[in-house]
Design brief:
Helix content is 33%, strand content 18%. By secondary structure, it is of the alpha+beta class. The protein has one domain: Beta-lactamase (3-Layer(aba) Sandwich). A hairpin with a 3-residue loop joins strand 10 (305-307) and strand 11.
Length: 400
């Protein structure tokens, strides 16, 4: 009788959150997250068909990287193809961490949302409430999250005023903004303009509000609770311990050239989280539940931003939105120094594509090709014609 009671008590306690040291909203045990369906939602023949289709697509694009395709929470396809380092000839492994580039922005947004749920901040607070030296007095946290702040590009300041071989921190980036006070692009809230500066500021705001470094906050409050054991923010000491390090490359003639070190690599928030497709599968599930933040807060992340004139923008908190023939797609792509990445979720079809690449592949194009190829097989939308290319292309060094 006593043994039965003890077993029931353990199971009962296991259903409730485990406390963390910051208080407020707590996180659930890793074992409740690190699970996936053990039975495929498709038949054996259909699974083989899907896998063969995906193999052909990767061959078509001469893919070099890691990919996972999930359907109804089940990993239909996982693959790691090619080299981590073209100079050394090191092969990729399934658990090789890649630079996520701007996919990192969703992590930064999640950190801010956690603090919001713990009543440490409000989305409509001004940034100067927490960072008094921040030179743009009327900008709010919400405007940073949805790219409507109008802030100038901090990368311009790093290129012009910072030593090329000296790392720069988020604190030092804030100092540059305060010192040079570049004019804003527009009045905060009046327009949308994709801003790396805004998310770099948010990472420092997380530090100021939580009282711990951004990398510590992410490790304790996101990576560890979700069981993301191969995920970390840029730290040279961690990168030096990797037996095989994935390097970002770009085509140089017929060869692949490794990108050199950039001081801005160590500015966090807008980029510079490293992860694997396996870890990102766990991460994606967290965005579909209230494991880390409440349902109410999570819903705000998937609401379109509103600018002057009551116009909506297809961006929420760290996520982009688009509709394909009425089917909702939530996604974010990334590009930084030879690395490209995407997490793309076809919401209505419970279909997710995660791609990590280290040679500037057009991941968005690959996802589109996958969706078209599986339309009528796993996806159910009517393909739309490709829109004409824009007449002018704006050169962007670090984007999406």
């Amino acid at each position: 009788m006593r043994r039965t009671f003890l077993l029931i008590f353990i199971l009962f306690v296991g259903l409730f959150p485990v406390s963390d040291r910051l208080g407020g909203i707590n996180y659930l045990p890793v074992r409740l997250l690190a699970t996936e369906p053990t039975v495929s939602p498709v038949s054996g023949d259909q699974l083989v068909d899907v896998q063969q289709r995906l193999d052909k697509i990767l061959t078509k694009y001469k893919f070099n990287g890691s990919i996972m395709v999930m359907y109804k929470g089940y990993p239909l396809y996982r693959n790691a193809v090619g080299l981590a380092d073209f100079t050394k000839g090191d092969s990729l492994a399934p658990n090789s961490p890649f630079q996520l580039a701007s996919v990192s922005k969703s992590f930064t947004a999640l950190a801010v949302m956690i603090l919001h749920d713990r009543n440490k901040l409000s989305f409509d607070d001004t940034v100067v409430r927490y960072i008094p030296e921040f030179p743009y007095k009327n900008v709010t946290i919400r405007q940073l999250l949805n790219h409507t702040s109008g802030l100038p590009n901090y990368l311009y300041l790093v290129e012009k005023y910072w030593k090329k071989d000296e790392p720069i921190s988020n604190r030092e980036m804030i100092d540059l903004l305060a010192k040079y006070k570049l004019p804003v692009y527009f009045k905060a809230g009046s327009r949308f303009d994709y801003s790396n500066t805004g998310y770099a500021v948010l990472a420092y705001l997380v530090e100021e509000v939580s009282g711990v470094p951004f990398h510590t906050f992410m490790q304790n409050q996101v990576f560890q609770p979700l069981g993301m054991h191969n995920t970390f923010t840029y730290e040279q000491s961690i990168l030096d311990t990797l037996s095989i390090r994935v390097k970002g490359h770009v085509h140089s003639g017929r060869k692949m050239r490794e990108y050199p070190y950039d001081p801005a690599d160590q500015v966090l928030g807008d980029k510079s989280i490293f992860s694997t497709v396996e870890d990102l599968a766990l991460y994606q599930k967290a965005w579909e539940t209230n494991i880390l933040v409440s349902d109410t807060t999570r819903e705000q992340a998937f609401c379109k931003a509103v600018i002057s004139g009551n116009k909506e923008v297809n961006y929420g908190f760290g996520w982009r939105f688009k509709d394909i023939a009425g089917r909702k797609v939530v996604f974010h792509n990334g590009l930084w120094h030879g690395f490209t990445a995407t997490i793309t979720r076809f919401v209505d079809d419970e279909f997710t594509v995660i791609i990590l690449n280290n040679m500037n592949a057009k991941v968005g194009q690959i996802v589109t090709d996958i969706a078209r190829n599986l339309n009528g097989v796993l996806l159910s939308y009517v393909d739309e014609p490709t829109p004409p290319p824009p007449t002018k292309k704006r050169r962007v060094r670090h984007r999406r």
